[in-house]
Write a structure and sequence with these properties.
The chain is an alpha/beta fold and 442 residues long. The protein folds into three domains: 230 residues, 2-enoyl-CoA Hydratase, Chain A, domain 1 (Alpha-Beta Complex), CATH 3.90.226; 128 residues, no CATH class; 66 residues, Nucleic acid-binding proteins (OB fold (Dihydrolipoamide Acetyltransferase, E2P), Beta Barrel). Helix content is 48%, strand content 17%. It contains 14 helices and 16 strands. It starts with a helix and ends in an 11-residue tail after the last strand.
Length: 442
């Protein structure tokens, strides 16, 4: 009985240990932005709740926002579960903000044919939207660079990695291959697959930032991959500057079209939804509000062109304002956080066509002379049915109307309507010159 009981206890312990041997994996493939920050922090919390052996962040990023990077680093440092950053698959990179995330991880690994580096801080334009003062820009860049160096050296010391190369990556934008990173002790492992990484680190003792130590049991652990939720995938897509810009412009034009043509409904609905989504997307990007103001000013100039004949001067000013505002809209020199010239050109051409033709035609239609009702009779021609001296009857489009004329008109003579009295429903007509009464025609 004792042997049976002992066997059951042993099986129970081994069963629980097998349950505990779970590794969570997430895939960060793109810019480090607020969406990526939310994805990583939520994944760390999930791994803690599940008491996972390890959280693996499979990384491929060109970099991203410094604020988002700092939040991710803080989340990794405060994690109660060991975090490994694995730069993979081959061809991937950990650039700019990705260097900090890699250095913050308890375990850093790379796949062959990957690279890491180019972490120098960069700035966009000044807060006012103009060209930044060179002295101020140099001073601010030096401060931020020194802060970044201190941060990454602290991380390197904590994780036992190469602090000198990390500083070089920031100050000189140094970039190295995975093989070089292993030789320089920038990373801990160079492995071709995730399974090989889990095998290599099995039994490794990891010290967390709170001082506790964890022995990894990952060789036979079950790997569970958690992808971004549908909400996060949508928001990540919307965080693309080009998409956010197009949504913003579509929203503005949709609402303007609805205001000029009340009751069309569809442009207003589409415009409202696009504008709200576009404004949300702008919150995830480094927006320069001077660019936003220039875009709005361009819209105003286009509208004025419709109202005030300026022989195209207002349109030219609107195009210049729209181009400048589009270029300045996102305050970042990083290519993946800037608008492409193809998108700017497309939007500018579409904007000019929209205001010059679409809204212009709508206003022309609005100003067009009425063609129905009593007012629509003005300018119409007809024939005198009962002689006008001064009152009589005229026939216009097969309808008989009471009419009055200051000049006597004979039956059959052609007349033209010049006024319409809404109260008496009488038309004021004048004879058409050189018209001959139908009764005298041969």
């Amino acid at each position: 009985m004792k042997r049976i009981a002992f066997s059951l206890v042993l099986v129970f312990i081994l069963f629980n240990l097998s349950l505990a041997q779970v590794v969570h994996r997430i895939i960060v493939d793109g810019v480090i932005n607020p969406v990526a920050t939310e994805y990583i922090t939520q994944s760390i919390q999930r791994a803690e709740e599940a008491q996972a052996q390890l959280l693996v962040i499979q990384l491929d990023t060109p970099g991203g926002l410094m604020e988002s990077m700092h939040r991710i680093v803080k989340a990794i440092q405060s994690s109660k579960v060991p975090v490994a950053v694995y730069v993979a698959p081959p061809g991937s990179r950990a650039a700019s903000a990705g260097v900090f995330v890699t250095y913050a991880a308890h375990i850093a690994a790379m796949a062959p044919s990957t690279n890491i580096g180019s972490a120098h801080p960069v700035f966009g334009s000044s807060p006012t939207g103009g060209k930044p003062d060179s002295a101020m820009s140099k001073t601010m860049l030096e401060k931020v660079t020194n802060d970044a160096v201190a941060k990454i050296r602290s991380l390197a010391k904590k994780r036992g990695r190469n602090a000198d190369w990390a500083e070089k990556a920031i100050r000189e934008s140094a970039n190295i291959t995975a093989e070089e990173a292993l030789k320089l002790h920038v990373i801990d492992y160079l492995v071709p697959t995730l399974n090989s990484l889990l095998t290599v680190i099995d039994g490794k003792r990891v010290e967390l930032d709170d001082g506790s130590k964890v022995v990894l049991r990952t060789a036979h652990a079950k790997v569970i991959t958690f992808k971004m939720s549908w909400r996060q995938r949508i928001l990540d897509t919307l965080s693309n500057p080009n998409i956010a810009y197009i949504l913003l412009m579509l929203g503005i034009y949709g609402l303007l079209f609805e205001l000029y043509n009340p009751g069309t409904i569809l442009p207003g609905v589409v415009g409202g939804i696009s504008l709200i989504i576009g404004l949300y997307a702008l919150q995830t990007l480094p927006v320069n509000y001077a660019g936003v103001l220039l875009i709005l000013f361009a819209v105003i100039l286009f509208l004025l062109e419709i109202k005030i004949p300026s022989f195209g001067l207002l349109t030219i000013g609107g195009v210049i304002s729209l181009v400048m505002g589009s270029v300045m809209l996102f305050d970042s020199p990083l290519p993946f956080l800037r608008l492409s010239w193809q998108v700017i050109t497309f939007v500018v051409i579409l904007s000019v066509l929209f205001f010059v033709f679409v809204i212009g035609m709508a206003i022309k239609t609005y100003r067009k002379k009425p063609t129905t009702g009593l007012v629509g009779m003005i300018g119409e021609e007809g024939v005198v049915f009962k002689a006008l001296n001064p009152e009589g009857t005229v026939k216009i489009h097969g309808e008989f109307w009471k009419a009055v004329s200051e000049v006597p008109c004979k039956k059959g003579q052609r007349v033209k309507v010049v006024e319409a009295d809404k109260e008496t429903l009488k038309l004021k007509v004048v004879p058409i010159e050189n018209s001959i009464p139908e009764s005298k025609k041969s």
